[in-house]
Amino acid sequence: MSPTQGLAQQPLNSFLEADAARADDELNRVYGLLVAALAKNPKGTTALRSAQRAWLVFRDAEVKAAGEAFGEGTGRRQVEAGTLGRLLQERNAWLLLALAGKSALGSGKERAAADAQLNALWKTHEGTSRGPQRAWLAWRDAEVAFWSVYRGESTKDAVLTRLTWERCRALSGG
């Protein structure tokens, strides 16, 4: 049974908002550890900060679009808090990969398939999520730049592929 199953709207909103706050605290902790780990790598630190700033813009645009797509009503806070929590957890996973010194998993060979699927999904979302799409592209580019500086140029295709597949999953509701 889900911890939120059977909850009325207000307690459900509170649960999801508290969950997002915990994920945000964890993100701040992991980000701080990664910045400290990059202390002797100024280019890596700069690239990480650029990627994080771009991710914050994407996060805010995505949460706003999710709420607007839901419309007005009692469930809007739930949708926004749930979206925020998911995004924070996904970002934590990326930062933990970097902190562990692991390259982003994903095959550069899959990149064309991922791009084709993402383009098809964006066509179905056209008009409803243009702002988040642009923000995601800016974050994706900044994230790839960070990984290229941090783990080497050879990680570029793998990072692009993984980010693209993750975006496909998010846009298809999975």
UniProtKB/TrEMBL annotation:
<feature type="domain" description="Lysozyme inhibitor LprI-like N-terminal">
    <location>
        <begin position="9"/>
        <end position="95"/>
    </location>
</feature>
<protein>
    <submittedName>
        <fullName>Uncharacterized protein YecT (DUF1311 family)</fullName>
    </submittedName>
</protein>
<dbReference type="InterPro" id="IPR009739">
    <property type="entry name" value="LprI-like_N"/>
</dbReference>
<dbReference type="Pfam" id="PF07007">
    <property type="entry name" value="LprI"/>
</dbReference>
